[in-house]
Specification:
- By secondary structure, the protein is an alpha/beta fold.
- Helices cover 26% and strands 26% of the residues.
- The strands form 3 sheets. It has a 9-stranded mixed sheet, sandwiched between helices. The protein has a two-stranded antiparallel sheet with strand order 2-3. Strands 7-10 form a two-stranded antiparallel sheet.
- Strand 12 and strand 13 form a beta hairpin.
- Helix 3 (96-112) packs across helix 4.
């Protein structure tokens, strides 16, 4: 009798919108990429990270095959996306195609009830997708959160506190913008010492959802609280499938 091969445990498919990169020397041409630390954190959690091409149209149909979504960090949203009539000099790496796709992904993911983890720019995208606005610049090196690891206080019993298993974490940040006006239905569930909104959740969300302004992938390999965010996403995706 031929022995049967053990079945490979199903890895939930986690969609991660790719980021446009103008130069990637090893590939010779411009590329669509995702940070290695990010995809490795999803893999460690038991998920199958899949980069998704940022193209307009049929977003809901494209997402339907996935078990969860991760909206990653990246450049700034175009200020006109949240109603601003001017653009601060520090706004960088704006790409209209990327903006349109990410905003559509945020809206469709929430509408479909797919589990969603939004990171840094991803948090800002969700806020804008739900009608919120952003502070275009936090005020220069003495106030921005670039190359900074700082303490963040999580609201007890919030989704982000349950996911991390903590009420205070050391968060690795890289951003010069932050939430100004909250989008419809969103609430702040974590803050930095300076009052910056560091996590958002959606009242009455159809599926598991949390958004963090920091980059949990930076330290997830060594910090269980940060890895737990990816574990929670994949667990919710597996339970849904």
């Amino acid at each position: 009798m031929t022995p049967t091969r053990p079945l490979t445990p199903h890895r939930p498919l986690i969609a991660i919108p790719a980021r446009f990169a103008a130069t990637t020397s090893a590939l010779r041409y411009a590329a669509e990429v995702n940070a290695r630390a990010l995809v490795e954190a999803v893999w460690r959690a038991g998920g199958e990270p899949v980069s998704v091409h940022p193209a307009a149209g049929e977003v809901a149909a494209r997402l339907a095959r996935f078990d969860g979504v991760l909206l990653p960090g990246g450049g700034d949203l175009a200020p006109h996306r949240y109603g601003a009539t001017d653009t601060h000099a520090t706004v960088y790496d704006v790409d209209e195609t990327q903006d349109a796709f990410d905003l559509a992904v945020a809206r469709e993911t929430l509408a479909l009830g797919l589990p969603l983890l939004a990171v840094c720019r991803g948090l800002q995208v969700v806020n804008v997708a739900l009608g919120g606005t952003l502070e275009q610049d936090m005020g220069g090196p003495e106030r921005e959160h670039r190359h900074l690891v700082h303490p963040v206080t999580l609201r007890p019993a919030s989704e982000v506190a349950r996911a991390t298993g903590a009420e205070k974490v050391d968060a690795s940040c890289y951003h010069h913008q932050r939430v100004d006006r909250l989008g419809t239905g969103l609430e702040v569930t974590a803050t930095a010492v300076d009052g910056t909104a560091e996590a958002l959740e959606l009242i009455g969300a159809r599926g598991w959802f949390t958004a963090v302004q920091w980059h949990p992938e930076d330290t997830a390999a060594d910090d269980p609280a940060q890895q737990n965010l990816f574990d929670a996403l994949v667990r919710a995706a597996r339970n849904r499938s």
